[in-house]
Task: inverse folding
């Protein structure tokens, strides 16, 4: 089976926002870039992840002021992660067990990437068919 590191988005390609970014700005970045998550930083340190699900459940459903609510207030933290040498099946199983659609990818405990359900779908879509 294929290793997670083969399909992860490397950390260098993460789209990040500082923790004091307002929710509306974050939503616009996600919309404009066609992505479902942003990494939240405090300087150079990644402190959480903000997903489209977080936006729906913690912003839209609760009716908070998108200009006054920061991404730090609505992000998911800590980021659940899987080691880069684990398989895509392992990642799928972990996502299913935890009901998450995004996982951090680590190497020796350090965040080096991210994998999402979308990445798994791309992999499965490209498998040879009989």
Result:
């Amino acid at each position: 089976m294929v290793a997670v590191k083969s399909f992860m988005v490397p950390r260098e390609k993460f789209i990040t926002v500082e923790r004091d970014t307002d929710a509306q700005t974050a939503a616009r970045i996600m919309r404009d870039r066609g992505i479902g998550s942003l990494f939240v930083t405090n300087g150079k340190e990644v402190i959480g992840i903000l997903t489209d699900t977080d936006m729906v459940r913690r912003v839209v459903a609760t009716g908070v002021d998108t200009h006054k609510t920061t991404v730090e207030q609505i992000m998911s933290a800590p980021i659940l992660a899987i080691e880069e040498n684990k398989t895509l099946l392992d990642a799928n199983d972990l996502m299913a067990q935890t009901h998450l659609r995004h996982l951090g990818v680590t190497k020796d405990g350090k965040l080096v990437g991210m994998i999402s359900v979308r990445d798994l779908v791309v992999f499965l879509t490209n498998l040879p068919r009989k």
Summary: The domain at 4-125 is CATH 3.10.580.10 (CBS-domain). Strands lie at 9-10, 16-18, 37-42, 45-51, 81-83, 102-107, 110-116. Residues 80 and 103 are 6 Å apart (CA to CA). The first helix runs from residue 23 to 33.
